[in-house]
């Protein structure tokens, strides 16, 4: 089958990337595997390196670059949002509370999807909102399974403690009462991607008057069930 796109330089660049998918390669190995002329292979590899699509290992061999991983995460996020949105709507309808999906971006967590309560007192978190990683049940979830060094750094200035995160890991969900915002309570659970890594948090939130001071008692089960459903769907689509 002819895999040519009709754009020669693009086809040759993809040939280099396809070769590196098998592992590190020296320039000589690139030439041998791709069949490209040495100057052409070198020029393409260096150009791809400039755009971070190709990198070099400690031995100077060409390897796939970090930009590909970033693009893969972006593609995964699109998949996550497509999978999560109807489940967030179901969670909102089941609990009667606003539902949100958060991903960590550096020192903040960003609301990337939401299903808002249609009437009455609401805890509205617009999509795109950046909230602190130092307060709230979703922040607890996104921090609880981090590597120890990163976890301890994240506890600096946090309104929760290491013992709180230990409890989160043990029971598989988190709750907060007036932690991020006075009068607001929430419950969150982890969404897991490849290898069981926590990639996002699903939450419900609303006034303490409705959720009470023990919101997990009401909503831990539906929130964890929603998170598990999203996680399972993500694994099926990436498997």
TrEMBL record:
Which positions fall inside the IclR-ED domain?
67-236
Identify the species of origin.
Actinomadura alba
Q: Which keywords belong to this entry?
A: DNA-binding, Transcription, Transcription regulation
InterPro entries reported for this sequence: GAF-like_dom_sf (IPR029016), HTH_MetabolicPath_Reg (IPR050707), Tscrpt_reg_IclR_C (IPR014757), Tscrpt_reg_IclR_N (IPR005471), WH-like_DNA-bd_sf (IPR036388), WH_DNA-bd_sf (IPR036390)
One Pfam family named in its UniProt record? HTH_IclR
Q: Residues in domain HTH iclR-type? A: 7-66
Where in this protein does the record put region Disordered? Answer: 211-239
Q: What is this protein called?
A: IclR family transcriptional regulator
Comp. bias regions, Basic and acidic residues: 229-239
